[in-house]
Amino acid sequence: MEAKDIYIRGKVQGVGFRPFVYRIARRYGLKGFVRNETTGVYIHIEGENGKINNFIESIEGEKPTPSNIVDIEIKKTEFKNFIDFFIDFSQGKHEKFTFVSPDIATCDRCLEELFNPDDRRYKFPFINCTNCGPRFTITFDVPYDRRNTTMNEFEMCDICKAEYSNPESRRFHAQPNCCFDCGPTLILLNNKMENIEGEPIRMAAKFIREGYIVGIKGLGGYHLACNAKNNEAVKRLRSTKKRGNKPFGMMASIEMIKKECEVLADEERVLRLPAAPIVLMKKREDSTISDFVAPGQSRLGFMLPYTPIHHLLIKEVDLPLVMTSFNIADEPIEYNDENVGQHSDLYDYLLTHNRKIYIRADDSVISTLNGEVYPIRRSRGFVPDPIELPFKSDIDILGIGGDLKNTFCLIKRNYAFLSQYIGDMGLLKTEEAYKENLEHFKHIFDIRPEIIVSDLHPGYHSVSMAEKMQGVKLIKVQHHKAHFASTLADNFYGGDAIGVIFDGTGYGEDGNIWGGEFFVGSLENIERVAHLPYIPLPGGDMAVIEPWRYAISLLYYAFGDNFSLPIHLEKRNNQFILQMIKNSINSPLTSSMGRLFEGISALVGVCSDNTFEGEAAMKLESIAHETDGMYNFYYDGNNLDIKDLIIGISNDIKKKEQASVISYRFHRSISEIVYRIVSSISKKTGIKTVALGGGVFQNLLLMKLTLERLENKGYNVLIHRNIPTNDGGLSLGQAVMGYFINKGGK
C-alpha cells in the first residue's frame, strides 16, 4: 500500500476533470481525494502500487476531450488511510497558475435533452453539463468553482444539487448547473425596454421572419440578428452598424449551411468543433443569401448554434440568420446589459437574460487551409488556451499588440496567453476594453509584467499606452519582425528560418513604410535581407482608404510620364496625385505587399475604394480564375524590380483581358517572386525552413500557390495554425522578441 500526491497542470478546470478523476479512482478501488487549486488539480491517492500506476496511466490516456495536460508531478507522501475517494473543496494558494477553459458549445447529450419533451429541461435556454457551456466569459477568479463565476447569484434547487453531488451524473460538479426552477430567466423586450408578451424564443423568431432586427445575448456578448435572406433587413443592419461593405457572420443549422455553401468535409469538422467558430466557405452559385451580407465576396462565414438559446431560435425561425457582434463599426462587442439598453437604435427587439457576462469575447473566425485550421480571428472558444513556447522565461512579459485587430500577449514561464480579439485601437471604448481585459488576464493568471513590448510606430495608440505604463521596462520592436517571430513561436520553432512577411502597413527601421519583407534569423536575432521596391504612397493613410491613389503611383513607377490610365480611373483627380508623387508631398515610400494588392485591384477595376481594411485585396482574390501565364519581374539576387509586372498587367487591361484572369496571373507572379527570393537567400545561407506571415497571407489563393511552390522544392514551410497571421497574432511576436532582446538579442 502506498500514498502519492499528484499535481496536474494544464487545462484541467471547467472540463469535467475532477469527476473524471473520481470515476477512475473508484474504478481501481483507490482512496483519497481530488481538488482544484490555483495551480491546477491536486490528487492525493492511496492504494496498491500497481493500481495507482494504472490510475495514472488512465488519467493520461482517457482524459476528457476538452482538457489538456501539460505537466504531471508525482511525489510519494504519507499514508493517511482514507476510507473512500471524494472531491474536496477547492483551495487557493499564493501563486495562481492554472489554465482556464474557453467557452464550450452545447454538447450532443444536452441537445438531446433540450429537444426531448419528456425531459425536465425541455427547451431550457441554459442547459449545460460538465462537457459544455459557459466557462471563460463567466469566470472572475480561479480555481474554477461556482463561487468564482457569475452563476454565484443562482442557488441550485434540490434536484440540481443532487445532480451536482452525484458522481454518476453528467452534471457532477458542473459549475453552471441549473434548471427552470433555479437558473437564469430569458425575456424578450422591445427597444423601449418594455416586456413582450408570449414565449420569448417563439416571439423573437416571429419578429425576425417579419424583417425586424433582434439583439441576442450570447456567451461573450450580444449579437444583432436578422433574416440573412431579407435584403432590406440586412441593408438596415449594415447602415445602423456603419459597417461599410465588411462581410457579416451568419448562424444556421448544418443543413441550411450546405444549401448556401460548398461545405468540404474538413470545413464541416471545424464548424462542429467545441469552439463553434465562424468558418469561411465558398458560396454556392445558387445561394439565396442576400448579396448585402458579403458584397463582392466569393466566401460566406457561417457558424453553428453554440448556446441553447441559439439552438432553440434557429429551430424556431428555420432560416439562416445574420449574427453579427452588437457594436458600431470597429468598437468592441457589447456585453454590458445597461449599455445595450442605451443603444436602442441598433435593434427592434432584445432577447436577453439575467446571467451576467463577466468578460467579453467576440466570435472566432476560421479558414481551412489544406484541411487544417487557419485562424483569422482568435477569440471565443479558443481563448484563453495558451501557446507553448520553445523557451522558459524567468520574468513576466506583455506584448501590447498593434492598432488594428488588437490583442495583447502575456508570457509566463514557457507559455504565452493571448487575449481574445479586442478591436481597432484609437476608440475610447476599445481602449477601455483593452485595459479591462488586461487586468482580468493579469489577475486570473497571476502575471505581473516587468517588460512591455510595443511597436515602433510613433503614431500608434497602443504605443502611446505602453509609454504611459509605469514601473516597467519598455522595448520597441519593428512590426514585421514581430510577425516573423510570431510565426516561429506559433510553430514552437527555435531554429533559423527565412521569413517572408507580407503585410499592409508597418513603420520601418529606416523610417519608410514596410510590408513586403524578407528576413533571416531566429527568435534571438532577425535581419532584413530583401524587400519589395519602395514606391510612393500618395496621401499616406488616405491611399489605404482610396487604393486608386496607389494605382496611379504604380503606373508612374513603371512608365514614368508615359503611362495611360484605364477608363475607370480617368475621372479621378490624377494630376493632383501625380504632383504629390513627383514632388514627394505627403507620399511616404512603402514596400507594402498589402498596398500592392490593393493598388492592382484598383488598377484592374475590381475595387478602387476600401470601406473596410483589405476590401480591395479581398475582392481581387475572390474573382481570381485559374489560368496559365504570369507576369515578369526582375531579381538579380540583391534587388527586386516589379516594373515589368505592372507593364504586363497594363497590357492585359488594354487587351481587355478578364479581370479574373489578370488576378490569377498576379497571384501566381507573387508566389514566384517569393520562391525566387527565398531560393536565392537559401543558397547563400543554407537555410531550408521558411516562415510565411503577415496579414496578406490571409489570402488563401496566394498562400496555396506559395506553399505549393516552396514545398515542391523541398522547403520546410511554417505557417500559423494556432493564432492569426494578421495583426491579431502580432502581440505574440512582440512578447517573444522582448524576451530575447532583454537577454541581449536583437
Short note summarizing the structure:
This protein is an alpha/beta fold.
Features:
six-stranded mixed β-sheet; 4 domains; 746 residues; Nucleotidyltransferase, domain 5; 22 helices; Alpha-Beta Plaits
Please characterize this protein's 3D structure.
This protein is α/β, with parallel strands linked by helices. The chain folds into four domains: 86 residues, Alpha-Beta Plaits (2-Layer Sandwich), CATH 3.30.70; 281 residues, DHBP synthase (Alpha-Beta Complex); 131 residues, Nucleotidyltransferase, domain 5 (2-Layer Sandwich), CATH 3.30.420; 188 residues, ATPase, nucleotide binding domain (Nucleotidyltransferase, domain 5), CATH 3.30.420. It has 22 helices and 30 strands. Strands 6-13-7-8-12-9-11-10-14-15 form a ten-stranded mixed sheet, sandwiched between helices. A six-stranded mixed sheet has the order 16-19-18-17-20-21, with helices on both faces. A hairpin with a 4-residue loop joins strand 7 and strand 8. Helix 15 packs across helix 16. The radius of gyration is 27 Å and the shape is globular.
As residue ranges, the low-confidence spans are: none
Strand content: 15-25%
The count of DSSP E runs of length 2 or more, i.e. the number of strands, is 30
Q: Helix/strand-derived class?
A: alpha/beta
| Span between termini | 56 Å
**Multimeric status of the protein:** single chain
**What fold name goes in the CATH topology slot of the largest domain?**
DHBP synthase
CATH class of the largest domain: Alpha Beta
Strand order of the largest sheet: 6-13-7-8-12-9-11-10-14-15
What's the total helix number? 22
Q: Estimate percent helicity.
A: 25-40%
User: What's the number of structural domains?
Assistant: 4
Task: Tell me, briefly, the overall form.
Answer: globular
CATH architecture of the largest domain: Alpha-Beta Complex
Largest sheet geometry: 10 strands, mixed
Integer-rounded radius of gyration = 27 Å
Determine the mean pLDDT.
95
